[in-house]
Amino acid sequence: MPESFFKERNIQFLCYHFHMDGKEYPDDLGKTMSFEEFYRRVDNGALPVTSQINMEQFMGFFEPLLQAGKDVLHIEMSSGLSGTFNSCRMAKEELDQKYPERKLKIVDSLGASSGFGLLVDTAADLRDQGMDIDAIHAWLEENKLNVHHWFTSTDLSHYRRGGRISAASAAFGTLLHICPVMNMDHKGTLVPRKKVRGKKNALKEIVEKMKEHAQNGVNYSGKCFISHSDCEDDARAAAELMQKEFPNLKEPIRINCIGTVIGSHTGRGTVAVYFFGGKRVD
């Protein structure tokens, strides 16, 4: 999600970090390193390595808020992709002892990128409607698996490097212009579901997956987010397809750029679609 989103919704956030060319950078929404520069370096052979947020960093983020007399609801990236949620949980346990009069609620989103963002956005809507922290936390736990994530990519090298697909699949897929269609399963991990030949067909396939899984099918009237790793034209093409198929969308489709930490694992060429649907069960 862009920095403007967090400012508009009055949401504080904590940055992940990545290392590239011997230097550490924060994933601060493109401020320290623009997304264009990041993907240019990756194209030129840089191999970014991401790092988790540790317990001490969470303590430093949460404690001033608790000291100020505020209750905190924190939504974290999927434990199926990162060990960061465990660090968050340990920080919570310590701070619960230190500030028993305050509430510190944490949620393992079992999501990532703008799917994780869709959950954060919905939590902010509930807050603005007057729902209290306990009720929002309960709603998130009950509904987080209703957020669907469907991805496709034209660059398979980073998925191979991260173990998402095999080396053989990456080699043959690149040669034959095969684009995998993947989703986030109920454990919050990325799972290849189908192989489609050609980018246009892959984008059509993720739209078909939305028709299959969205609440009320083509009558879906909720929010839809799209994210992309420096391939905005592809994201806009997907948005056009969705607007034709889903005329009742609640708001214009929000298109975001995939940030540097997730982009370290996708490389350029990924398009992902996020929406509310039935519970993810596998």
The secondary-structure element order is HEEHEHEHEHHEHHEEHEHEHE
Strand content: 15-25%
Count of extended strands: 11
**Mean of all residue-level pLDDT scores:** 92
Sheet with the most strands, sense and barrel status: 6 strands, mixed
Shape: globular
Total of DSSP H or I helical runs spanning 4+ residues:
11
Distance linking N and C termini? 26 Å
- Name of the level-1 CATH class of the largest domain: Alpha Beta
Low-pLDDT stretches: none
Instruction: Tally the structural domains.
Output: 2
CATH architectural grouping of the largest domain: 3-Layer(aba) Sandwich
What's the gist of this structure?
The protein folds into two domains: 3-145, Rossmann fold (3-Layer(aba) Sandwich); 146-276, Hypothetical Protein Tm841, Chain: A,domain 3. The protein is 43% helix and 21% strand.
